[in-house]
Every structure is written in C-alpha cells, then in structure tokens.
Design brief:
This protein has 33 helices and 23 strands. By secondary structure, the protein is α/β, with parallel strands linked by helices. The strands form five sheets. Strands 1, 2, 5, 6, 9, 10, 11, 12, 16 and 17 form a ten-stranded mixed beta sheet that branches. Strands 20-19-18-21-22-23 form a six-stranded parallel beta sheet, with helices on both faces. A three-stranded antiparallel beta sheet has the order 13-15-14. Bound molecules: N-acetyl-beta-D-glucopyranosylamine (NBG). The site of N-acetyl-beta-D-glucopyranosylamine has 18 residues, from α7.
Length: about 850
C-alpha cells in the first residue's frame, strides 16, 4: 500500500548502482563489418553509393545485432529467475527515435561514433534519418516510454503492451497559419528494430452471441458463436537498460485477417464474411486516435482496445502457464498496470479467460483479477472519461459485456450494503448506469490500486472527482508523482550540459538523478555561472538554426527564449499566452522607447483534428506572429515562433535551449505535466500556476527560483462548484484586456473579422447562455502579466538568473522516472529485482 516513501524526494537512492552488474560489451570491428555487410545485402550497394536512408537502415540493423545478444540473455535470465513481471498496458507509447538512445544506453556512444567515422559516416546525420515513432499523443504516451526506460535500467522484468499503429500521430504542417494534418507513414521504409513474432499470434473475437452449454458436471460453459475474428501478431521492440546489459520488450500488436482469402473455396456467404474479416483486420491497427485528454467514443476505438488487450492478456496467462500449474496464483508472477481507462477491458478479459478457458469459479477468478489489475488515472477532465453505450458494447463484445454486467451486479450490492437506500451513490459509482458502461468505475472496482500522477492531482481525485470511491475504498488510493528519464532528456538531448555536469560532479546522476544535487555548490560560483550560460547560449544557437531552417524565421539567441510546448488544449491556456503577447505588443507600439528586454516566444503544439478552438488558437498564434515579426517598429525586440510538428525529437532540442518554461494551466486541470520536469532538468525557470507537478517542482527548487501566479486549485474548484465568476466584469474594468480582446474581432490580426470570433466568444460569450471563460483566462491574466514582468527583471541580472537556473537543474532529482518506477515497484507491483548472472553470448559473425 502507499505510504512511507511517497513524498521523500530523494530517497530512491542509487538503486541503479546495485543493479548495474555488467556494462554491455560492444565490438567495434564487428559493428563496422556488419554495417558494410548490411548495405550490401539489403540494398546491393557500397557505402559510397547508398542513400542516407539506406545507410541509416544498415547502421540500425547492425545496432540491432548488437542488442539482440543482450536481449536474448536477459530473456533467458528472466526465464530462469522467474521474477514477477509488470505488463504496462497502454494504448500509447511515444517512444521517439530508438537509435541514438539505444547507443547511449549501451554505453557505446564513443565506439559507435568512432566506428562510423572510420566508415566516413556521421552519427548525428544518420539519426535524423530515423522516423520518430509517434505512437502516442502527448504526456500519457511519453510517460509510458520513460517508464520502460526506467524499468530496464533498474532491472525489472516488464513488458510494454500496445498497438502497432500503421499511422502514428499525424505530422503537422502549418499552411497559411493553419494546422494541416498529414499522415505519418512511419513504417514506409520498414522498422529495423522490430521483430515480428508470428509464433505468438493470438485470435481475437468480435461480435456474434454467447452460447451456453451444460457439461457433465452441471457447469455452464460459455462460448462466443457467430463472431468475426482477427489474428493479432506481436512485434517486439527492444528497450535497452542503461549500462546494465538488460533489454526488455515493448510488444505492439498488429492485426491480420484470420484466413487467407482464397476466392474459389468460398460460397457466397463465406465470401462476404471473409471480406468483412479482411476489412476488420485492415482497420483495427491503422491509425492512432489523435485525441489528448479527450474521449471520441468511436466503435473502432473500442475494437482497438479489446484487440490489444485480449492478445496481451492471453499471452500473459499462457506465458505463466508454460512454467506454472495453478492459474489461481497468476497474480504472484504478473501484474497489469492500466494506463488510464483505455485498457480497462483487461479486467473482464482476464475474468473470461480464467472462467471460460481454465474453469475457475467466479470467486476464484475475481480473486485473481482483483489482485492483478492496478489503475492509473491521468486526468480529471470530464470529457476524457470513457463511457460506452450498452448497445455498442454488448454487440461488439457480448461475452465481455456479460461479465461486466455480473461485476456490476455484485458491485452495486456492495454499494447498497455500505450505503443502504442511497440511490445517489449507485448513480455515481455503478459500472453500468444510464445506458452506459463506465470504464473508470470498472477500473476502480476491479483494481487493487488506484493512483493519481502528482500529489495535488491525487488529492483532487480523493476529494472531488473520485470522492465516493475514495470514501468507500480508501485503501486503494495512492499517489505516484510522474517522472522523466534523464537519459533521453539530458544525456541524449543536451550533451553539452550533460558533459559539464559530469565534469563537475561525476556521472552518477545518469542512473541516480538525486545525485545531481551536488551541483548546488556551483550555483554561486561565477565561473560555473558563466559556463552554464554559455552552454545555454550554444543550445539556443542550435535551436535558432533549427528554426531558421524549418520556419524561415531569424531569432536572436541572446533574447529570452520563453517556451510553451505541449498539446494544444484550452485548459493548458496557450490562448492566455498569446493574448498576453498581444498585450505586450500593444505596449511596445504605444511606448516605442520603453525598456524592453528582447524576447522570443516559442510555441509547439498539435491540436486534435476536430477541436475547433484549439486549431483556431494555432491560427491566432501564427497570425500574431506574422504581424509582430514583420513590424519594423518592433525592431526585432519580440519574435514569435510556432514550431511545426512538435515531437519527441525536436522536443529534445527545445528543452535544452529554453530559459522560461510556460506551465500555465488552469489550476486543478493539469494532472501532472512532464514537460515541466524536462525544462527544469535543462535549467529553464518555471512560469506556472500551482497545478499538477508544478507544486512539487516549486517545493524542490524554492519559490524564489520559480515564478508562480494565478488562482489556486481550491479557488478554481470553488468557482466551478458555486459560480460567482463574471469575465464581463473584468472586460469592462480593464482597458488593456479589453483592447486585446477587441483585437480578436476588429481586423488587427485578420481581415476576416469573424475568424477569431469563436475565441472571443469562448472568453465572453455575449451571445449564448453557456458559460464563458471556463478556464479563467481573464481572471488570471493580470497576475500572469505581473509574473512575466518579474521574470524579465530577474533575467536582466544574469548572475541571479544563472544561479537560479543551476539550482533548477540541481533540484530536479525527484523528477526522474527511476524514482517513480521504484515507488510503483515498492508500493504497488512488488517486483523482484533481476541481476544478470551471465554475459551476453559472443555475437555471431556474418
Ligand atoms: C495526461 C495529463 C498530464 C500528465 C500525463 C501523464 C492524459 C489523459 N493525461 O498532465 O494531462 O502528465 O497524462 O500522466 O493524457
């Protein structure tokens, strides 16, 4: 159960040091041979003739060769030691590129660079050839990727289980200031790192009906009949632990038709069915739904969920049964972490397998299931809560629906026993209610652990969002504040700073981030401050070059880089940011001689394809950028840049180059945020509300080294529950705000005065009765403006700024995903630590 260690920021000490038994060996000569061989056999070319893409593939395959030995050794070791395994079930894994990170985790960076140099190749250029696998939307998917990195590095047996989407998160192009979604065909050149494993294929059934027959013992046996099915084929991707020889697996499932489509063997009815099965398979894994913090309610989405869950759960049980006899003890060797409600059908699928295939009784099956499943909640946003109409659910998954009905029946009985006659409790907590199947309620009812992702978020879950559940089952609830991997977001993304840190305090921080606190003694050191600021400057030059190349905009690396990169969502308030920039521009126009510290405002954000106000905000940012960047009066003092196609790869460049980290969500709405941690780790100062993990960041680094503004979550929730906020009053009383809002509809930024009207209406809503400014932008505007003033004044004292930036890096120790994972292990999963006893077999030469 949760408790003791949760809040101690630096207590997950040196776990990695104990784990690292052997640095993986890397044979440079063999690697070179392998690259040359690959170019020849894959492309019939010599090194000189091959295209950059072909060279990338050849190097990637050579690297996979080097990884495979460790992968096999690790899996063999797991087989022998038989440790408990976590299955991290997630619709999204936002892995980012594999090559650079794997090289770093193999500790082979120097050798690989040398080897490639000797072949006349440049690693950095090759890395840019790798598509960025974007099998996720935002923070939730990236968290899953950071967790896999930490699990491997800490030496825990783990599988990531997900979907092999053929098209990941769309590529964003900006045309005429608008977002245009372009398909991300990331598999077009194949994926060198994946292994297709048809020997572990599974059948997944949809539709039909449930038939019952009674066997000779009088038992009811349930079968699905008249269904359509697809074959789930697993593709395994290696997850390399840092420097410890451990390689875990991310297993993503692809759908293929069950039967080969041979025309002549089908009569008419079968032909129809065969085509349908083909189409079902073709559609299921085609594309990731591009919604972040939002539920779309599409039938195909439910198919995707059941598809990868059924395959993963079947495999987990089969794997267990290959070594063990009693399926009643399954939970001793396996645990399922449900990454949000998306994988919640796992609860019913495990029940189905245990009862229908292993003949456990309901009570036995429930005992196993409720000791296996654990649920993480990632949002309090109502529009993200998954609910499926009964009609759809029961038609698509008839047996699963039956099982959920029974879970619900028993759960409602429990509620009635606890709260006799209280219909309200049933209305709120029942799993099936009002014609809908409520996935969060199912997840909570069936899980042995329910966690939020930052301290404040967990408190809000307990007091507001999930209050009734918490009151009935307080023992399930616990907090696990999110974390990020310093291996990707500092060691790989910011090599200059990483080297500088290692020169000063050694390299323990790579596997033991709290160690980075030793940097604090350099915060006041003039020389260190200079060096630090110089590194930041060089990273800003690197980003400026990227921006010049991709946006055609010149930005001054000596200006303050003030950055907001994250998904576009109204609660994240990019609109407040750009409105404030409009205000600053007005100031500069009206007081041309004012003291103005040069600033570059950088945005990066994808909007869900159907989210009107989010897409309009992107257009507004680009329209304002057009006007401001081209206004000679501004004399280049202000620049606004919208970075196209924000993704994991360009994120690494952006964090390294940032001075100010914009974390300005409406308090209570951002469950945690993880970008905030990546900025901090790279020495940016937080400009934020007391929301999500910002609260804990400020606690670690001290109020004086962050810039906090705006309403508290209690105030926001107070207004939401009791009313009493009128944005019109602010509009009427504040001329600065009024001017900015009028500029949305008076042609300042678009000849079409109606273009930005929906944004104007969302803030004031003079025309309809629905609520206005639900994210309290006008309410927080003044205090945001004050905080921005403070931050600029502070920047002008470069020594003070450098000190603060160094302290931010030094105090980021708590926010490693190694700490988060260790807490999941200690307080939820109870995994066994694996130490490699054997070395990887010598690589076979070709
Ligand atoms: C997101 C939250 C973030 C949080 C990540 C990871 C969803 C549903 N939630 O604040 O918005 O950091 O999850 O926990 O995507």
């Amino acid at each position: 159960m949760p408790a003791k260690k949760t809040e101690t920021s630096t207590s997950s000490k040196s776990t990695t040091k104990k784990t690292v038994s052997a640095s993986p060996r890397f044979d440079k000569e063999m690697f070179k041979q392998s690259v040359v061989y690959n170019v020849k056999t894959l492309f019939r070319k010599s090194l000189e003739e091959a295209s950059p893409q072909q060279l990338y593939s050849s190097v990637a395959y050579a690297l996979k060769d080097a990884i495979i030995d460790h992968w096999m050794t690790t899996q063999k070791e797991y087989e022998e030691q038989d440790p408990k395994t976590v299955y991290y079930l997630s619709m999204e894994f936002l892995m980012g590129r594999t090559m650079g990170n794997s090289i770093i985790n193999l500790k082979a960076d120097t050798k690989v660079r040398q080897a490639l140099e000797e072949l006349g190749l440049d690693l950095d250029l090759l890395e840019d050839q790798e598509p960025d696998p974007a099998l996720g939307n935002g923070g939730l998917g990236r968290l899953a990727a950071c967790f896999l990195d930490s699990l491997a590095t800490l030496g825990y047996s783990a599988y990531g289980c997900g979907i092999r989407y053929h098209y990941g998160m769309f590529k964003q192009e900006i045309r005429d200031g608008y977002q245009v979604e372009v398909p991300d065909n990331w598999l077009v050149n194949g994926n060198p790192f994946e292994l297709r494993r048809p020997e572990y294929a599974k059948t997944v059934k949809f539709g039909g009906y449930v038939a019952v027959d009674v066997d000779e013992n009088g038992r009811n046996n349930f079968h699905q009949e008249g269904y359509q099915s697809v074959t789930a084929i697993p593709y395994d991707l290696p997850v390399v632990g840092y420097g410890n020889g451990i390689v875990n697996t991310l297993r993503i499932w692809d759908a293929e038709p069950v039967e080969c489509f041979s025309l002549d063997s089908f009569d008419k009815g079968d032909y129809q069915k065969a085509v349908e099965q083909q189409n079902l398979a073709r559609n299921i894994t085609e594309v990731l739904y591009p919604n972040d913090n939002h539920y779309a309610g599409k039938e195909l989405r439910l198919k995707q969920q059941y598809f990868f869950i059924s395959a993963s759960v079947q495999e987990a049980v089969e794997k267990y049964m290959r070594k063990h006899k009693d399926v009643r003890k399954f939970y001793e060797k396996a645990t399922f972490q449900l990454n949000d409600t998306h994988p919640t059908v796992a609860v019913a699928e495990l029940m189905r397998i245990l009862m229908d295939e292993y003949y456990l009784t309901w009570d036995e099956a429930w005992d196993v299931t409720s000791k296996t499943c654990a649920y993480t909640n990632h949002t309090i946003m109502a529009e993200a809560l998954e609910k499926w109409p009964i009609e759809l659910f029961s038609r698509l998954l008839p047996r699963i629906y039956q099982i959920i009905e029974e879970i619900n029946r028993r759960f409602v009985l429990k509620i009635e026993t606890e709260y006799p006659g209280n219909q309200d409790k049933i209305a709120k907590m029942a799993i099936i209610y009002d014609g809908q199947v409520k996935m969060a309620n199912l997840a909570i009812a069936a899980s042995y652990s329910v966690n939020g992702v930052a301290r404040l978020h967990t408190e809000i879950l307990k007091k507001e969002t999930l209050k009734d559940f918490y009151e009935m089952m307080p023992e399930k609830f616990n907090n696990k504040t999110n974390g990020i991997t310093q291996r990707r977001f500092l060691l790989h993304g910011n090599p200059l700073l990483a080297d500088w840190i290692t020169d000063h305090i050694g390299d323990e921080w790579i596997t033991d981030l709290p160690h980075i606190h030793e940097l604090a003694i350099y915060a006041d050191d003039k020389k260190a401050q200079k060096e630090f600021m110089n590194i930041k400057y060089r990273n800003k030059v690197r980003l400026a070059e990227y921006i010049a190349e991709h946006n055609g905009v010149e930005v001054d690396p000596r200006s303050i880089f003030d950055v907001q990169v994250k998904r576009l969502h109204e609660y994240k308030r990019q609109l407040m940011n750009i409105l404030h920039i409009m205000y600053l521009y007005n100031e500069l126009k009206h007081h041309p001689d004012m003291d103005f510290t040069p600033r570059t405002f950088i945005f990066g954000a994808k909007a869900a394809a159907g989210y009107r106000n989010a897409k309009l905000t992107i257009k507004l940012i680009n329209s304002v950028a057009d006007v401001v960047n081209n206004d000679p009066d501004v004399k280049g003092l202000m620049k606004i840049v919208f970075i196209e196609n924000y993704n994991v790869s360009n994120a690494e460049l952006i964090f390294a180059a940032s001075d100010v980290s914009e974390q300005i969500s409406t308090a209570s709405k951002e469950a945690s945020g993880t970008g905030n941690m990546k900025f901090m780790l790279n020495g940016a100062l937080t400009l934020g509300t007391m929301d999500g993990a910002n609260v804990e960041i400020v606690k670690e680094v001290g109020e004086e080294n962050a810039f906090i503004f705006g309403m508290s979550s209690d105030e926001v929730i107070g207004f939401e529950n009791n009313g009493g906020y009128d944005p019109m009053q602010i509009f009427n009383n504040d001329p600065d705000i009024r001017r900015v809002l009028m500029q949305l509809i008076n042609g300042t930024y678009s000849p079409d005065t109606e273009l930005f009207r929906p944004l104007y209406n969302s803030l004031l809503n003079t025309q309809s009765t629905s609520k206005a400014d639900t994210y309290f932008i006008l309410k927080d505007f003044k205090s945001y403006s004050d905080a921005r003033k403070r931050i600029v004044d502070f920047y002008n004292d470069q020594a003070a700024w450098a000190k603060s930036a160094i302290l931010n890096v030094a105090c980021s120790g708590k926010f490693t995903s190694d700490r988060t994972i260790q807490q999941y292990v200690d307080e939820i999963w109870h995994l066994d630590k694996v130490e490699l006893k054997r070395k990887a077999a010598t690589k076979t030469t070709k």
